[in-house]
Amino acid sequence: MFSLRPSRIAHLIPSTRRGLARAAPRSVQSFIPVIDFTKFREATGEHERKLVADKIVSAFKESGFIYLTGHGIPSNTIQNTFAKSADFFHMSSQIKDRLAWEDPRSNRGYVKVGRERVTQSLDPTEIATLRAKAPDFKESMEIGRDWDSDWKNQWPQESDAPQFKQTMLNFYQTCHELHVHVMRAIALGLNLEESLFDAKIDKQCHNLRLLSYPPISTALLQGEGQARAGAHSDYGTLTLLFQDSVGGLEVKNPHSSTFIPATPIPETIVVNVGDLLARWSNDVLRSTLHRVVAPPAEKISDTESMTPARQSIAFFCNPNFDAEVACLPNCGKDVKYPPINAGEYIVGRLAVTYT
After folding, report:
1. Which residues lie closer than 8 Å to 94 by C-beta, 6 or more apart?
2. CATH topology of domain 6-95+111-351
3. pTM of the predicted model, to two decimals?
4. Fewer CB atoms near the end CB (10 Å): N or C, the chain?
5. pLDDT above 70 covers what percent of the chain?
6. Sequential DSSP letters for 183-225
7. Residue 100 DSSP code
């Protein structure tokens, strides 16, 4: 359905790369503001919604990242999803490997440690070299819309992972609904019709990614270019990131080019702009480089230390795969990018990321 040749997408990545929870240091909160979404969700009039929308768009113009509080997803829902995710990764490799990720057009299934190497490169040879030299020390489970007629999710047997499937399907829908509201806020903050994006995201072509970063010897993380997940930007419209308390996420400040630790803040979701939304907005909104590094290690002997395990859940929000992404009104007269098919772009990026 889509061409996977990297040469076709090399020019498509937005050029702007500017630029999460205990209370974050003041310097972090000034760069990545905490925004209460309650008034947008519950407001009866447009004026209140517009005030929140303007804050979100302002932050996305500056850093591309926000902490979202008042998002409406109950804490017990998030905690239960984390618990079911942990149960999945605790299963044997033999069971998980039967669910292995196979195809970038599907982007579904289990990805074992070292198989993915996130990077800004689009050169398969360069990525293969990076993967061999400094693989990402994480494993993941990728889940898409479950009613897709062409691509099926890879579910474990109910006896192996009780309630896993239903928990993830419910969470997928919950995240999609939040995505719709945040995209409405973005449209309003750009002084566009609030429902502008509705018909371009209603097919739910998203990716729910469960992530597990196993404990690892610090010696293995000291090589050149090594990280739990290398510096990269995300591909779609928005990412909703749910963190545990361990930390490790860092966001690149576009003004100083330094990476700022994005300290987990309880009861918040980290939301950031992806490449397609940056492109849609003609780089008015920033898709910002970020990475996952090792948190402080725990000494286990006189010569050896271990970094602790980390869990996170990322919901990668995408436009409909048949949607055309072209410069929005109110986003500049000099258009930087030609129109692009959303599905072709995302599948092409995935095709060079995995082995």
Report:
1. none
2. Jelly Rolls (2.60.120)
3. 0.85
4. N
5. 79
6. HHHHHHHTTS-TTTTHHHHTT---EEEEEEE--EEGGGG-STT
7. B
